[in-house]
Amino acid sequence: MIVKDVKELIGNTPLFQFDAALLGGKSGSQIFAKLEYLNPGGSIKDRLGLQLIHQAFLRGEIDQETTIIEPTAGNTGIGMALAGIEHGLKMIFVVPEKFSLEKQQVIQALGAQIVHTPTNKGIQGAIEKAKALAKETPNSYLPLQFHNEENPAAYRRTLGLEIYQELHGKIDSFVAGVGSGGTFAGVAAYLMKQNAKIRLIAVEPEGSILNNGPAHGHEIEGIGVEFIPQFFDGLMIDAIDTISDDEGFRFTRHLAKNYGLLVGSSSGAALASAVRESWRLPSGSKIVTLFPDSGDRYLSKHIYEGESDLDIGGKNHAF
Ligand code: PMP
Predict the structure, then answer these.
(1) Structural domain of residue 173, as residue ranges?
(2) More confident position, 95 or 269
(3) Alpha helix ranges (H) inside the chain
(4) Which among 27, 34, 160, 271 is least surrounded, fewest beta carbons within 10 Å?
C-alpha cells in the first residue's frame, strides 16, 4: 500500500474479535473492538480533526492564515494538527494540566502550540480559556467540538458505516465511552437508522455524572463528563456503565499482556462495559465497541504497572 498523504491513513481501522468468555463474559458471545488507536495520530479523533478542518474550509470559515483554537484533552488536538499540516495552519490547543504529557509532546511535534489551564477547573475551564483566547486573536476559529454538530457527523459518515458493513449488520449492542459524546452519538445515529433494535450502551468512569455522579476526579483518561453532552438529545440509551479506575486499568493491562493490544484506559473501560453487556444478553450475542487511543501516550502515567487479572468469577460477574 503506497500513500502520499497522511490523511489517507485515517479510518478503515481493523475490528478485533474477542471470545467474551475469555474476558469473564458470557460463553458463546463475541465482542468486537474497532482498533481506532491505529489511526496515524494514534486515536479515533483523527477522524474528527479531518472533518473539522475540511468542513471549516468548505464553509469558508477558515483560510490559510486562520489560527485554530480549541480546548482538547489532547487527542482532538493531535487529529486537527494532522489535518492542518498540508495547509500550514497555526493551531493553539488549551489543555488542562492533568492530561498526559506524551499527548502534549505529540501536539507540539506536529507544530501546534499548547496553553495550559488548571486541572481543578476541568474541561469547562479549558473551554472558557479557549473562548477568551479566540476573542483576542484576529482571524481565529474555535471549532468547539463539544457543541459542533460536525463532531457526531464525522463518526456517523465513517465509523458507523465501517462497523455496520464489517459486521454485515449483525450487531446486538454498541458500547462506547463518552467524553464529548461525539463518537457515541455519531455511531449510534448511523446504527439506529439501519436497525433500531441495536442496544446502545454508554460508558463513563466513576466520577462522571451520567449515572448521577457523584462528580470527582478519575484516572481513566479521555472519557467522563461534567455535563450531559448535547449530542445525546433524542438518543435512547439502554444502559450506562460506570467503570472504576481499578476495573478500567485492569482491562487495559489485560489487553496488553494477553492480546498485545497497547491501548489507553478508555479502551479498557469500554471493554469492561462490553463484558458486562454480554451478561445482559443471550449467549451468541455480538457486541461492538471502540478502542479510542494508544497506550504508549500514557507511559509516563505508568498505566501498565499493576494488576491485569480480571478477577474472573468474582466481581466482574456481579452486575
Ligand atoms: N477515549 C479517548 C482516549 C478520548 O480522548 C476521547 C475523547 N476525549 C474519548 C474516548 C471519547 O470520545 P468522544 O469525545 O467522542 O466522546
Answers:
(1) 6-43+150-301
(2) 269
(3) 45-58, 75-84, 101-109, 122-136, 150-155, 161-166, 182-194, 245-259, 265-280
(4) 27
Residues 65 and 129 in one domain: yes
Residue owning grid cell 509532546? 105
Q: Is residue 122 situated within a structural domain? A: yes
For residue 265, which atom of ligand 1 is closest to its CA? 3
Which residue in 45, 103, 129, 286 is the catalytic one? 45
Give the CATH number for residue 101.
Answer: 3.40.50.1100
**Residues of the chain with pLDDT > 90: what percent?**
90
Q: How far is the CA of 90 from the centre of ligand 1 (A)?
A: 23
197 is catalytic: no
From 123, 141, 159, the end of a domain falls on: 141
Q: Structurally, how many domains does the chain consist of?
A: 2
CB of 75 within 6 A of ligand 1: the answer is yes
List pLDDT tens digits, range 234-246: 999 999 999 999 9
Query: Are 51 and 37 found together in one domain?
Result: no
- Alpha carbon distances (Å) from 41 to 32, 49, 250, 284: 22, 10, 25, 35
